[in-house]
Every structure is written in C-alpha cells, then in structure tokens.
Amino acid sequence: MHTLATIISFAAETAEEHEKSKTPFYIAGATLAVWAVVVSAIGITQPNFPGTPGRTRLVYGISIVLVATAMSMAVATAG
User: By the 8 A CB rule, do 11 and 21 touch?
Assistant: First the structure.
C-alpha cells in the first residue's frame, strides 16, 4: 500500500506544473476497480465472506483507503 502511494506521489510530483498528469488518478482508479471486482468475486463464491469481525474491518479499511486515494488523486489532478 505504501509503495503504491509512493509511486502515485512521484508521478504527481514529476508532472509539469501547468498541465497536471492524470496518471496518478488512473492508477488509483484502476486499483480501486480491481479491488471491487476481487471482493465481489470472493463475496459471491464464499457465502460467509469475510467471516470474522477482524477480516470485515480489514476489507472495510482497505476499501476506504482506496476510495479516499482515488478521490484525492481526482482532485489533485483536476485542472
């Protein structure tokens, strides 16, 4: 997770100031989309997914971080 944030941050910093690169948003959005498909596929095939309260919090936490990252990259690259 930290590596992805570093890559996205580096991509944002290397973009020209007058024209911001949308690459960080595309990476964050694609990561969120892949996460959604994986969680959906597991949820469909495993009726008791995620199973324990700890795993539920983990899935929620990852989802929240990915959504917040995609949203912040959308705002950061706008303009």
Answer: yes
What is the domain count for the chain? 1
**What global pTM score does this model have?**
0.73
> Over its length of 79 residues, how does the chain's per-residue pLDDT go in tens digits?
677 677 666 666 655 556 788 999 999 999 999 999 999 999 999 989 999 999 999 999 999 999 999 999 999 988 6
Domain range enclosing 62: 2-77
- DSSP letters, 8-59, are HHHHHHHS-SSS--SHHHHHHHHHHHHHHHHHHHHHHH-TTTT-SHHHHHHH
